[in-house]
Automatic annotation (TrEMBL):
Name the record gives this protein: ABC transporter permease
Organism: Paenibacillus germinis
Keywords: Cell membrane, Membrane, Transmembrane, Transmembrane helix
Topological category with respect to the lipid bilayer: Multi-pass membrane protein
Transmembrane intervals: 34-55, 67-92, 112-133, 140-158, 178-199, 228-248, 260-277, 284-306, 312-330
Entry's localization field: Cell membrane
Amino acid sequence: MKSNTNVIMEAESKSSNSRKGVLLSVLKRSDTSVIVATLLLFIVFAMGSSSFLSSYNLFNVFRTTSLFLFVALGQAIVLVIGGMNLSLGAIGGLSVVTAGYAMHTLGLPAPVAVLLALFVGALAGYINGIVIVRLKLNSFVVTLATSFIYTGLVFGISKGFPYTKIPKEFTFIGREGFLGLPYLFWLMILTLIVLWYVFKYTVIGRQILATGGNLVAARYSGIKTDKIIMLGNVLSGIFAAIAGVLWISRMGSATPATGSDWMIISFAVAVIGGTALNGGAISAIGLFASSLMIALINNGLIMLGANVYYEQTFLGAIIMLAVMAESLRLKYSSIRKR
């Protein structure tokens, strides 16, 4: 029979191994770093400003978070297949101008204007995808070129002037809320749930991940990778259009400059949120946490009275810290595996 001492030692050993297993499983997650960083940032800003936790301020933070997330989804969906979309902001701007022109100049109902904006976004994404697939060109080169084309259309159509005759009922979803949280927040949560389900449980989600993870292997396994790449680019255009439409609803006007700063936002949120630059990985909760982190930076620095002219510096420093934390996580995870 085992002595009581041996039994206790075995129990402690099993408990220790269990804790190590849980820690290792947590460290394996690509979104661990950004979740921890966002929580710490939230605590710092909450302690640094008495008005940070006010319902009005949190409403604005979560609204901005939601807008950033939809912008980032347009980038994440092409990053996960191993590409990128430098024309994301231009597509968003083109969709904004389309919706604004339809409502302001043509006097079309808001639902029709939204459908037109989504169609334009999908068409722009399709053009990106067809050129990439048929001509076998790098997505960087293609989307860099189309970004100039779409931007030229934006200012050519609008002449640089905003469209301000936006129906008040159209701004409802961008300015109102439910249970103290903006409608945009609830729309974001629903979208993230769908995203998580698609990539975890559906065939198309698995095919997208496989294509991004290893294009050649995916092709040999029977996946129609060209169609997956096309789908990713079309979805990217649609998400850019959705972000643009929601931006109009938030601002109450369709401004041609919309989307001009989306490239840095889309890459920052997507990459920090656990979307692999070389494809094959995406995290719904990571995208939410990174969107919230960027929104907190924009909001918290103002609340703390920081010099807004240094906002990009603070943003870059925090992004760098998040990347360094991710690097340390990967190294520690690799050591623990040994």
